[in-house]
Every structure is written in structure tokens, then in C-alpha cells.
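#struct-pred

JT: dropping the chains for the assembly here, can someone run the whole complex?
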Amino acid sequence: MSDLVRTEQGPLHAAVVVIGGGVSGLSAAWWLARDGIDVIVLDKGIVGWEASGRNGGGCSHYQSPLFEEEQRLWPQMDELLGYPTEHRPERIIIQRQQHALDHYRQVGAKCREMGWPVDDLDTKQVMELVPFTDETCLGGIHLRFGGHANPQRTVQAYAWALQDLGGRIFQHCPALSIETAGGKVVAVNTPRGRIACDHLVVAAGPQSGQLLAPLGVHFPVTAARAEMIVTEPAPLMKIGGVDGNGLYGRQTLRGNLAFGGGPHEWLDTLPEGPPGRPGSPLVRNLARRVAEMFPRAAGLNVIRSWAGVIENTPDGRPIIDRPSDPGNVTVCTMSGVGFGLSPATGHAIRDLVVEGRVTFAEISKLGLARFANLPTDWRERRGWAPPPALAATEAA
Amino acid sequence: MTANPIVDRYDLTDKIPAPPEHFATVVVGAGPAGCAAALAAAKTTGGPVLLIDEHPVPAAWMGTDVPFVVGGRMTNAVQNPARMIEQLFATNPALEAVFEAGIEVRLGTAAWGLYRNQPGMVTIPQPMLALADAERAYTVGYDRLVLATGARDVMLSFPGWNVPGVIGAQGFYTLAARYDAFAGQRVLIVGTGALALATAQVARDKGLEIAGFVEIADGAETDVAAYGPVHPGTAITGTTTGIDGVTGTTLADGTHIACDTIVMALATSPSVELLLAAGINPGARDDTILLIGDAAATRPDMARLANWSRALGAHAPADTIVCQCEEVTRGDLLGVQPPNYLPRPAAMQARSLATLLNDGPAHPDQIKRLTRAGMGLCQGRRCREQVACLLAQEQGCAPDKIPVASYRPPVRPIPLSILADWQEAEAVVQGWDVWFGIPTQWTPYDIVGTPDEESHVSRVGGYSHV
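RK: done, full complex below.
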């Protein structure tokens, strides 16, 4: 065991310590390492073990200020990282209910307005592009941009690419406390010792709030569990990024249909991470929606399900910011929509760390300032507190 | 604190329906242990008892080695459900007694999920077992759950183990003894322990030829020599095949043995995936769940399996399949290489399990994500011990230190249309959103903070994930 853990000579130091080996933290570290900056990434477990490795893999976020950078980077990511991400371009969203179709037609119109090509599809066109559906599909939209990738493969690709540039990743190494001096962060204390740093990036998902509170940074996030199901492989569709009917997901390049959606369960956040990622009988509701969306694939076996724990901010939008106090900390949560945007998120964090501002996009509305007057009971006001049974159990 | 707490209509609270049926005792597995438990429960505890068994399993499952590794050696008899049910009764007299006692028995019914609250989940209204037959999926409530789910096959890989004719001891027993539907004639048995001996006895009872026993140690563990020639101190190095699969095997000492079936009889592992998938430690005391029979046995001796893994591995070239579902080779597993439909640039090829282990102990689930080993339809039942042995070997640790690869519901493959809840509650329909149902999450950035924001938010609702 001891020879598995790299023994460091002398005191540990990095120019930047990143807490959180998810996609945002790893992408940030990779961007920093590309500039020759010495980075250490800390993860409480294995990289990408939480929401970064357990999501639908979509890369098409027109609502984000990082959208253009997301679109610019994804087609290059395999080459830039040197490892396969399984990225595939384009997406199709299909619907069986008129109100949902109308809604997504508006989304398509908005994207076109922004200069991104979207085709409206009728039933016949959908059936040509999506062989698993049938006449019950009313139509859809075809995004001729965006796409999807394999979250687990991408997380590891960031990690490996970072290491190839000399960056270090300490797995099974949670941040225990953050040390400050003279109004600055000077080190992070871990089970492997004190790691001195010049700058700290906190991208620790649900745990970020608890980590940042002692620094006087109020970072409002709360987490919930969401679930997905996976079928056995099916013949490959021309475009694997097809979803709709209340679901998000994709057909993997292996052929599996992987889809999630529907109710979530709000959780308390423990410093060590979630106690488990249990599944619920919601798999049956997911199966129903996949069977409805793809009637011609309804005979496929569901071979597993999974669950992930995802944090959200009060408005569901990301926080990417470098607070003025302490001045050498950059914070990030993507509020449940982080995987696809991660190439751009890392770039934004790199810019904040190195330049003090984001050079390629205007992201001021993603700052912490918007939560300055947030009431302390913001979770309860949204019904986002864990159900009482859990609270009672934990109090006992 | 407030009289009317604000409710998130999109959260899971009150959306999981209570099971439509409830039994005082539900017994899973109608083998001798399960039948005895059902009879005892009916006599002593009172209240309705349900006994379920997934046998006779659908022929399609057998084609994928679920739940036992039958290696394609079943006869056409398995296509005939009525005959299969007859066989179940003929080979298990206790089943008749259970019926006579008026106990509700559902055959051809698989348990694919066990749901109850646990840390991180409080939304399950009551403990429930999720079942499926050829027609539908449903849940049943229970006061007491008895798991008599038996044990599954443990397989290790060697060159050719992925061709028809290589089967597990449980698969062999099920086909030969329970179903009377075994298509082979001449069996070679891998191992010489108690399981190999029991396998030989079944083979002899069924009038099959025993081609011999393969043993890596210098002598047999039990008195199997009475059943056939023992080949000690050797290992399988190759398999000869014909149109119907295995025709023979080659040993390290050069011996060639003609056989149509190779039975892996090294170990079985308790079938506790229902518990593991529910986050329940099978070893923990539990007042409502009882494990009995083979399901209550301990995990197989991993050190012994590791010895076999090393002995077989010494003769296994890099292209030897480890995971049959996903066709992952030994070389790609040790190299943590992606499947062959993805590119392998130079940096990727330079990576390996050895470099990955520099970052800390590996988890089989991580290896699964990278290589797809264990990611298939059988949820790694055919390869998890082999993967654990290889990880331990590379890591230089004891194989029982490797975490158990996760199981997830459904622990049996269930078609979408069967698994689907076609009668879901209105609360689910009304409380369904693609993602979290946070409308502001999808507001285009350019209108955030502008007068248009409010109308956009009210127009899109939460339903706009792309």
C-alpha cells in the first residue's frame, strides 16, 4: 500500500491547489498546466466519482455564457487532451406531446436567433433520423451543433492529460481544512500533509459550501440524487444524441441507451460525500418514458441503473467567481449542468486565476454577488431541504 | 416549522407508490432451502406467504448466461416452458408440498430489485421487493424477506473460455440435473475440490463421460480420481473448437483432451446481488431479511482463486477475453485501454493499470468505466472475480482487498416494456421534469437580469433541458 502512494520529498507546494477532481476542477487544472503552472488536484476519492462521472454527457448549452467556447472546444478535445472522450456531434430532441414540442421549437428558434443552426423535424423526418421511434412521435428539433461525450472517459482524459503536463492528482486525499494568513489562503491541510499554495480553486461539488464557509465565503449549494437507466446495446443510430419525452441522455457508441430524468431527492451534505447512491423504483418510470420515446426499441433489456448526487445553486445557474476576500481563491459550481461545459469552465477558471478576469466571455452574472442577500432558509423556501425523516434520523 | 412547508413538486417525496400486494413473508428462491422456509413460515408465523422463483428462466436469459453460466449447452427442451415446469417439480418434491400447503407460488418470476430507505434515501414508503415475469414488473411489500437465492458460478478466463461449451458448475447442475436439458456428452472438469466432486457425481448420475479433471496443484483436493483421470500440476493453455464450440482442450504439459464441455468447478459465490444493489451488507444482522441456504455462504476463497488466476494467466495471451459481454481482452484490461471502436492515440497506449495504480488503489468500477469490463448484461457475474484477481495481482495486494464491483438494479435484465410502470400516479406525471425543474436554470444568459427574464422563466417552466 505504502509504495502506491507517491512519497513527496520535503514540504508539499503547488502554485495552485484545486479541491475537487470532477470535470470542472480537472479541466481548470489542465488549463493551468498548459500554461506551465504547477497544479495539485485533491480528490476525496477517485476522479470523477460523483456527478462528473454520472450524467447524461450532453454538450449543447445554449443558455450559458460559456456556450460558444463549449462549442469551439468540443470538436478539438480528443486532440487537445490526447485521449478519447467519445465525443459525437449534434443532437436531436423529439417529443410526443404537443406542448413539449412547441416548447422545444421555441428553444430551437432561440438558438437560430443566436446564430446556431437548428432544423425543425416533422414525424417523417424524425423517423428517418431516429429509427427506434414511430408515428407516435409528433416531431422534434435537430441541433446542428452541440453533441455528447462519455463522462467517465472524459474525466479520466482530463486527469491523464493533466498528468502528462506535469500536474499532480492526489486521490483519496480530501481537503481537511484551508489555512489562511494575512487575508490570503496559504495552504490546504490533507491526510498527506500540508500543501502550501499561492492560489486555491474550490470546485468540490456539494462539499464546496462547507469548505468555503470558514473563509467567510458564503457559497450556497445543496445537493440531490438523480437517477438514470441503461439498456443493453442496440444498433447504432446515425446520431446518438437523441432525447426527449421528459428524458435526457444518449445512445453510447457501444449502442447502450442511457437516459435519466424525473424526480430527485434532496439530501444533506456530509463532508465525506454521500453515504451511497441508491436507486429507487423510479427506474420503472424511466423505462416507461424510454419505451414510449423509442417504441421500436421497447424490447431492449434494461441492464442497470445508476444514481448521482448533484449540487444546485438557488437559481440553478453556475457560480464562477474570484471573490475579493480572500483574494487568491477561485470558486466554481456548475449547478448540475457542468459536464458539457467543462472545457470552457476550465478555461474560465484558468483566466480568473491567472488574469483575474475571464478573457473570452462576459460571465459577471455568474458571480456570488447575486446571493448577497440570500435568506439563510433559502433551501426551505424552495422545498429543497431533505425530507424531515432524514433530518430526524441525523439529529438522533 | 411552518404549518405548510413549501414543497418542491419535482422531488421524489410521495411519488414512489406503495406495493399493491403485501405478504407477511416473501421467500425468493424455491430450491430446498426456500421451500422449507416457505413451509415453516406458513406454519409458524401466520400471515400470507409468497414464494417466488425465477426458474424456469427464459431461454433468452440462458443465451446470455443469466443467472448461471450455461455456455450454450442447453437442449431445445428449454424452449418448452410446460416441460420445464414439470422438471422443476420432478426434481424438487418440496415444491409440491408448498403448493399443497396453499402457499402462493410464482414461478418464472425474478426478483430484480430490493428497495427500502437507507442513508441518503427516505422516499421509499415501505420496504418492497421488485419482481418481474414474462408479462409485467411489479412490487410486493413484506414484513419478512427470506433470500434463498442460491449461489452463482465463479468463472476465470483462459484461452477459449468464451466459446460455447465452457460452463459453470451451477449452470451444469441446472441443465443436467434440474432441467434435464444438457446438450453435452463428455465433460472436462476444472478443479478437484468439493464442487468438482459434486459436479462429477451429477455427470456420472446422468451417464455422461468424464474426460478428466484439471488441477494446478500437485495433487487432487478430493477423491475425484474415482470419477476420471486427474491432470495435476498443469493448467489449460488452449481450447480446440468446432462448429458447436468446444471439441477439446490443451494442457500446459502438452496433453490434449477431447471433450465437448468444460465445467468450471472452482467455486460459487452467494447470490446476494439484491442486497448489494440495495446498499445492504449481507453479513450485517437484519431483523427483516434472512439469508438461507447457499445464499448465506461466505464469499469464495479469493486467495485460492488468485492462485488459479495466476496459473491460467501464465498461459493466457493478451487477446484472451476477460469480459464476454463487452469482449474485453486481458491485454486491454491490463492496459486500461478503451474498446476498439475508440481511437488509441500514443498517450492512451502509454497508459496501463500500472500507471493508474500510481494514483492510488484501483476500484473495479473505475476499471469498468475505462475498459467496459463488467459493464455488460451480466453485470460482471462472469468476470468480476477474474477482474479482482488481476487488479490484486497488479496492485500486489490480497484479492479480497479489492472492493466488490457494484451491482445495480435491475439485477436481472428486464425489457423496457416489461419494466415500465404503465399505471403511474398522477403525482409522477405532474412532478416530472427533464432535470430539476428550476426554470431559471435555462434562462439564456443574455436576458438574465433584463426585463425579459421574468416572462421567459414563466414561459419555459423547468422543461427545457437540452
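JT: nice. The longest strand of chain B covers residues 137-147. Chain B touches chain A through 93 residues (CB under 8 Å).
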